[in-house]
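Quick question: what would this complex look like in 3D?
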Amino acid sequence: MLKLDEMQKKLLEEVADLHAVPEGAYNIRSNGKSIGRSSSAHIHITSKEDGSGIVVQIDPETKKESVHIPVVMTQTGLKEVVYNDFYIGKDADVVIVAGCGIDNCGNQDAQHDGIHRFFVDPGAKVKYVEKHYGSGEGKGKRILNPVTEVFLSENAYMEMEMVQIKGVDDTNRKTVAKLDAGSKLVVRERLMTHDEQNAVSTYDVVMDGAGSSADVVSRSVARDRSFQKFDAKLVGNAECSGHTECDSIIMDEGRILAVPGLEANHVDAALVHEAAIGKIAGEQIIKLMTLGLTESEAEEQIIKGFLN
Amino acid sequence: MIELEHVSFEVNDEKEGKEIIHDVSFKIPDGQLIVITGPNGGGKSTLAKLIAGIEKPTSGKIWMDGKDITGWSVTERARAGIAYAFQQPVRFKGIRVLDLIRLAKGEKLAVSDACVYLSSVGLCARDYVNREVNASLSGGELKRIEIATVLAREGHLSIFDEPEAGIDLWSFKNLISVFEEMRQRIKDRSILIISHQERILNIADQIVVLRAGRLDAAGPKDEILPTLIGTSSASPDCRFQAPSGGETEC
């Protein structure tokens, strides 16, 4: 029976909404090693032979099942790179919940770099949720540098929900995707940085197949003296449609750089980008104040709504 | 009761100060529906903002049940029971209609209770309750939601700044019945509407006419309204944008 301490439980709750050991397939990694694993009838989790990570194999036609692979770190000074591969079988329909929570109470940096590759077979549908969270009073930084590579076969669909709301000092997220005919990628990124945090998010989505589409949307809030860079590039090599959007609220002395990029290499590639950065509108605050909220409560409410 | 005592409001227009409201005094007694009318640019909306605390008077006092609230913030006045419907409602990304009504009510209302307020402004609640208060809503829908939030507040004083602006004919007729119903169960509360629509003036207990920032006339409806008929302060031909793009009359 898997035993978790209080901090592990708290981190798991933050990054994977888990209050207990999950049902179905899971792999829980804590301070550099797997502390609990379970495969299900249709979802098989195995370690890579070289020990660098895990392989998650999802059988064709697996429907309405989920797999949780959260990572928690509570050891200051620990730095790790993990390579996880996901093979999603034809016509499967699954939810994959990843995420990393770091509690660093020490003075050395704690860093987790998860390199995830998704091979999504024809017709399969995946919802991927990745949450990042940091806590701890130590001077050591909490650093997360995820790399996600997505390969969508014909008519495959993948929705990615990427959330980082609190406590991660430094993150450099890279997402690369290649889309075959009829496939679709949807990304919803929600990000809030505070204090001196730094967050870079880079997307490079290549639509190679006819009828493929991508919709990459980021909503973010930069507070205090934090910095964010959103760099989203869509490439259309066939008849396809792509949309990227960066919608940001800037506060205090925060800074945001949005670099949308579109590359159309086919006459029927329809690509759109939108980017808007601005502070909270004064009239929004006043409206909520007329409902009885204080100025700071109004601000929090607006941010909460915006990021939800 | 709300009382304005010699209220003036000045804004700095480049180097010179420009007075928008000049020495205005009047009372809003409990249990009454007051309509403020007057020509455009006469300071009606500014006066409403002064009462809600969004603007602060340059001189004069505002009293609420004997307390001087002149220095109170928007939040303090809201908590004391002043509700305010914006002429141009604000949009919020990510905040749902339900969230806004709950915030207005100040408690975690059940969905069915929130729906009552939406239904009373003619919106099919089920279709709207989970929608975001964002650019996907039309001006008319947004206006009705704005009015619903003020209904939810059940304020001591409910202020509506040109509630008819930007809504269609059907909604306008519906709006009149919303105000009539509010008027019926007003008891110790009061309603202040900024409008120059004759139909709204017609349901007032008292009318205040503001012209060029000055109080031009104030008194019972039966006294004031006949003097306004045929002027821009009591517009009978409320023209509304028809779906075809033309205008329709009520």
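Answer marked as accepted. Residues 240-250 of chain B have pLDDT under 50 and may be disordered.
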